[in-house]
Design a protein that fits this description.
Oligomer: single chain
Number of strands: 20
Number of domains: 3
CATH class of the largest domain: Alpha Beta
CATH topology of the largest domain: Rossmann fold
CATH architecture of the largest domain: 3-Layer(aba) Sandwich
Low-confidence stretches: 522-526, 529-535
Strand order of the largest sheet: 5-6-7-4-8-9-3-10
CATH superfamily of the largest domain: P-loop containing nucleotide triphosphate hydrolases
Distance between the termini: 42 Å
Number of helices: 19
Largest sheet: 8 strands, mixed
Helix content: 25-40%
Length: about 525
């Protein structure tokens, strides 16, 4: 058995219940088991898993503090911590410990996450740990097609659950490792796995490990609040073990001392230089500040944040001469919205030489009969924009799509429109008509997968001053209206629900920019050359 590295100042948790004791042997056994494992990633690959102090405190508390009957006091462990602190390795080690080192015959240990792919991250780490440990490799049968490891001496197993697992009751759970609880789309899987599933076991353990999220109505936020209440002594639950490493909302998020509070592995698994770089990006970009606070400082943030720094956008108001662009290659983005609302069509012309800029030509339409009403209701100068030629009207009280189709056809005779990207919603007939005119029209998803790369590129190019949009006032208004939604992986997209005013032109610009980046110019796509922008 591996030598046991002990914390210099280990003290059992303050949440030890009356009558419970610290069982040194149980804690040492758990620590020694993990010490026998090896790391699986990067510069740490193949090195013994020597627990970092904060990790060892958790393992000793959870596995060493026992009730008078000898069983563990805690059956739920909630760990909330910033990214890159070694969460996956610790979760995988705990999963193997519950499967192989807990002496539970027929024990069922499950790995859960927002989807099977996410749950497989911890499982794959566990598989690699087994491969590097001869003692475990000789005793564990992997069934990789089922994402399952079977520990033959006890008949116990560790398995990844599918996304539909919440429909499968009757599980006899000894352990659950929940990775990134904040990404759970609802509470169904959590409830099935934690409510009654371990009643037949003497000491089940629900090991929840996550980064802070952005949804105050989620199951993770509910558990987060319980953890905070216990930490701050507002509630008492002797079975619940809470750990939260994070910065307070009122603290200076640019201060390295604050970073250390949320990053107990700083200087070990994550370099302070990388946090400094992320902080500098966040200072220049409101959306990146939100991500920095959530992922690096482990703060719960809002799902949406006002996004575009307008002083940077305004610096891209370089003059645009439409006539000088005749015959030039470009790409379109079409956002129809509804028939009573604004329709936006935006052309993006990719650079033709190294110091050239992306040129934006936007066009907007609104029903003529609704113009005055919308000016009074929305307090937006549609009438002035219409007189200045920045906004067009179509006859009647709904947008006349036929007029717009003819307008786009005329543009195609003037400019070399290679593709038009469109939002699938409500565009079927217009798409068919445009295709009948000989135009290439491609659907463009409005989810994170499709929208995130060009949205990040829009910000990057704006900050670098590589746009020329002529200061178009309608497009400027819409850019200023954008709120951004962020998912658990750091992907972003415009949020029409949170954006209190219209952003159709911004969405059309993003779609057109995507096609211009992927297909425009003589060189390959920028995505191919250096990959996606990830902050």
């Amino acid at each position: 058995m591996a030598a046991i590295r002990k914390l210099k100042t280990y003290k059992p948790t303050i949440f030890k219940a009356d009558g419970s004791v610290y069982n040194q042997d149980s804690a040492d056994t758990a620590v020694a088991f993990i010490n026998c494992l090896k790391h699986t990633k990067g510069e740490w690959y193949g090195q013994p898993f020597e627990l970092i102090d904060w990790q060892e405190q958790i393992i000793r508390d959870v596995f060493g503090i026992t009730k008078p009957n000898g069983y563990r006091q805690f059956n739920t462990t909630y760990i909330e911590i910033a990214k890159k602190q070694g969460k996956s390795e610790l979760a995988a080690a705990v999963a193997l410990l519950l499967t192989c080192g807990d002496f539970e015959h027929g024990g069922e240990v499950y790995g859960c996450a927002s989807d099977r792919q996410q749950a497989s991250i911890v499982f794959d780490v566990a598989v690699e740990m087994v491969e590097q440990c001869p003692a475990l490799k000789a005793r564990i049968k992997p069934v990789l097609s089922q994402k399952r490891l079977v520990y033959k001496p006890l008949g116990s197993s560790y398995q990844v659950l599918s996304a539909e697992a919440y429909t499968k009751h009757g599980l006899n759970v000894h352990g659950v490792v929940f990775d990134e609880l904040h990404a759970q789309p609802n509470r169904q899987l959590f409830d099935v796995m934690t409510h009654g599933s371990g009643d037949a076991r003497k000491q089940p353990l629900y090991f929840l490990i996550t980064t802070a999220g952005n949804d105050p109505h989620s199951i993770c936020y509910e558990v987060h609040q319980k953890a905070k209440d216990i930490l701050e002594r507002r509630k008492v639950d002797p079975t619940f073990y809470p750990v939260i490493y994070g910065a307070n909302e009122d603290e200076d998020w640019t201060d390295p001392k604050v970073w250390a509070k949320a990053n107990p592995s700083m200087g070990i698994t994550v370099d302070i230089e990388k946090i400094q770089i992320a902080c500098e990006n966040a200072k220049q970009n409101p959306a990146e500040e939100n991500l920095f606070r959530q992922l690096r400082l482990n703060q719960w943030v809002k799902q949406s944040v006002r996004w575009m720094p307008m002083e940077k956008w305004d610096k891209c108001s370089f003059a645009v001469d439409p006539d000088s662009l005749v015959g030039r290659q470009c790409y379109g983005g079409l956002d129809l919205s509804s028939t009573t609302d604004i329709t936006a069509f935006v052309l993006v012309f990719p650079p033709e030489y190294e110091d050239d800029k992306y040129i934006i030509l936007p066009y907007f339409w609104i029903p003529e009969d609704n113009l005055d009403l919308r000016v009074r209701r929305d307090h937006v100068p549609y009438d002035i924009w219409e007189k200045q030629g920045f906004l067009k009207t179509t006859e009647g009280n709904v947008v006349h799509y036929g007029y717009i189709e003819n307008f786009i056809e005329e543009l195609s005779l003037k400019y070399n429109i290679r593709e038009i990207a469109f939002d699938r919603w409500g565009a079927v007939q217009m798409v068919q008509n445009l295709e009948g005119m000989g135009l290439t029209v491609v659907p463009f998803g409005q989810g994170f997968k499709d929208m995130s790369p060009p949205t990040k590129e829009l910000m990057k190019l704006t900050l670098e001053g590589k746009f020329a949009h002529g200061g178009h006032p309608v497009l400027r208004w819409m850019m200023d209206n954008i709120f951004i939604r962020t998912d658990s992986a750091g992907n972003i997209k415009p949020d029409k629900e949170k954006s209190t005013e219209k952003i159709d032109g911004a969405v059309a610009t993003i779609m057109a920019l995507d096609r211009a980046i992927r297909l425009g110019g003589a060189s390959n796509s920028v995505y191919d050359n250096r990959g996606l922008i990830v902050f």
